[in-house]
């Protein structure tokens, strides 16, 4: 079984999460689409980790975003929820290979992007905007923000992952 490189995970945390804070307010398209590209750290977190560790990583990632974006508990709760069922969702929709811990865009392919990444980003954004607005009516009023932000976040996460992932070498 492959081992997780904690140095590499720390680098990814810095790349995704710490850079999100200074760029959070700058990555907005037409005051409608927001890019939450820190979600890429959670989506591409290695498989097969201890569930408690996954939940702690999700909570601490969201808490870090909450500390700097003046949203007490909003991102922490949503990120914890995403990490709660991420592995279960992935195993339910994709063929899981034993011993594969690292997931990236090359392993998932287009089917994995549409069936795994896009629904998780949509659920994340749905919860963020719904909780932020505070009522069921807000869900319908902010649906354009939810859908535009989902597409914008998906594109930014995929671009970042294409840059930092290693393409598998065929022999």
Structure notes:
Strand 1 (28-29) and strand 2 (33-34) form a beta hairpin. Strands 1-2 form a two-stranded antiparallel ribbon. The chain is 69% helix and 2% strand. The protein is built from eight helices and two strands, in the order ααββαααααα. It has 171 residues and is mainly α. It has one domain (27-164).
Biggest sheet strand order reads 1-2
Low-pLDDT windows of residues: none
Whole-number total of structural domains:
1
> Multimeric state of these chains?
single chain
Mean pLDDT: 81
> Radius of gyration over alpha carbons?
16 Å
Helix percentage: 55-70%
| DSSP summary: helix tally | 8
Spell out the helices and strands N to C: HHEEHHHHHH
- The shape, in one word, is globular
Class derived from helix and strand content: mainly alpha
Key features of this structure:
171 residues; mainly alpha; two-stranded antiparallel ribbon; 69% helix
Q: What is the element layout, followed by pairings?
A:
Elements: H1 6-18, H2 20-23, E1 28-29, E2 33-34, H3 39-43, H4 51-69, H5 74-93, H6 105-133, H7 136-141, H8 143-164
Antiparallel strand pairs: 1-2
Helix pairs in contact: 4-5, 5-6, 6-8
Please summarize what this structure is.
With 171 residues, this protein is mainly α. It is 69% helix and 2% strand.
